[in-house]
Each structure stands twice: as C-alpha cells, then as structure tokens.
Amino acid sequence: MECKCRTSSPNLVLYSYWQSSCAWRVRFALNLKGLSYEYKAVNLAKGEQFSPEFEQLNPLHYVPVLVDGDVVVSDSYAILLYLEEKYPQKALLPDDPQRRYLNLQAASIISSSIQPLHMVSMLKYLEEKIGPEEPLLWALSSIEKGFLALERLLKDFASSYATGEAVYMADVFLAPQIAVAIMRFKIDMSKFPTLARIYESYKGLPEFIASLPQSQPDAGQ
C-alpha cells in the first residue's frame, strides 16, 4: 500500500536517526497527521549528536528534535503533544476522557519505564560496570515487565488498535517499541496476546510502513 501521508507542507524539520525508536514515534505521528517535513539525519553511531550545532538544539544530545519555524521541541513525548495542539488534524488523543488518559498513560509507560532502560548507552554502561551478560538480561526484564503492565492496562479497551478502532498516541508509542522488542531482543510476544494482536494491525498501516527504519534516508549508516 502506498502511503499518502505527506499532504500538507508546514515548515517542519525533524532531526532523526533511522534506528532510534523515539524518532520512529515522531515519524509515525507526522505521517498519521499528513504533515510533510524535512528529514535531517543525526548519525548517533558517529557521535554527531555531540556536535556544537546539535547541542544548541538539544543539550541532552538525544534525537528526535522537531523544529517548526522558530519553535524547537525535543523529546518525543513533548513533540507529540506539541503536534497534537498545533496540528489537530487526525487527532492522536480521543475525546473520551477515559480513553484519552489511557493513551497518555500507555505512552508514559513506554517513554519512562521501558525504552530508557534498554538504550544503547544504558546497556553499554551496565556492561562496563557489571559484565557482558547483564545488559541483555536487564533489557529483557525491563521490556517484559513493561509489556505485562501494558497488556493488563489495555486488554479491556483494545480492538484493532490499543484503545479501539482508531490509531491514537498509545499506538504511536507501542508500534516501534514492540518492533524493537521483537527484532532486537527476540521477545516472545505470545506472552502478551493483546499487544501481539494489535501489532499485526500496525504492520498493515501505510503510515507505519513509511516510518520504518529501513525506509529512512540514512538507513544503514
């Protein structure tokens, strides 16, 4: 299926790295909202995030960073909230209060309690301080603990997607996280049937396909 996602042309620039799951969330959201953007690659493997130019955009040296004219927003969670307020087309948060805050809760679990615990920098630090076997065990434990919480949180609300029949913010965070868990850490998703089912739905979305790491201009670099 062809992604007809970039239909409008605001002055958006996304600083991204193809393998960053945090940047992946933002690419997925931009596609869902139909927002065109300029892709600027920041090669984390080569340390380009520590350049003086990038440090002015984000002193923490992380991607993604979104530039919208004079506005600079870093951190994927903050970027998605900014996009939701500035560009309300194709809402990423439902009107229903319960489902709205369910989406925010799921996104928060991933952004604060799963993804940061298996960042490359975290795993390298653990390897240096503890030993070569510990980082993988730590990552697997962190992901499975978080997925168990999400499974319980969403099982009574999920349908084709995390909180129903529409793609919302929880899905934008879940899709890349599940993909990373499967491809990089070989997580057995049969333990999490709700998450496994909705991930199959994501795989058919043109906006998700267009956001895949291998589809980015800097893929393989």
Structure keywords:
221 residues, alpha+beta, Glutaredoxin, Glutathione S-transferase Yfyf (Class Pi), Chain A, domain 2, 2 domains, 4 strands, GST_Zeta_C
The CATH first-level class of the largest domain comes to Mainly Alpha
Shape: globular
Q: What's the tally of helices? A: 9
**Helix and strand run:** EHEHEEHHHHHHH
Family: Belongs to the GST superfamily. Zeta family.
Pfam family, one: GST_N_3
Domain GST C-terminal: 96-221
GO molecular function, one term: glutathione transferase activity
Q: Your description of this structure?
A:
This protein folds into two domains: 12-90, Glutaredoxin (3-Layer(aba) Sandwich), CATH 3.40.30.10; 97-209, Up-down Bundle (Glutathione S-transferase Yfyf (Class Pi), Chain A, domain 2), CATH 1.20.1050.10. Strand 3 (65-68) and strand 4 form a beta hairpin. It has helices at 21-32, 52-57, 76-86, 97-114, 120-129, 134-154, 169-183, 193-202, 206-211, and strands spanning 12-16, 38-41, 65-68, 71-74. The model has no long low-confidence stretch (mean pLDDT 91). Helix 1 packs across helix 7 (169-183) and helix 5 (120-129) packs across helix 6. The two termini are 26 Å apart. It is α+β, with helices and mostly antiparallel strands. The radius of gyration is 17 Å and the shape is globular. The protein is built from nine helices and four strands; from the N terminus they run E-H-E-H-E-E-H-H-H-H-H-H-H. Residues 10-91 form the GST N-terminal domain. This is glutathione transferase. It is an enzyme of class 2 (transferase). Belongs to the GST superfamily. Zeta family. Its EC number is 2.5.1.18.
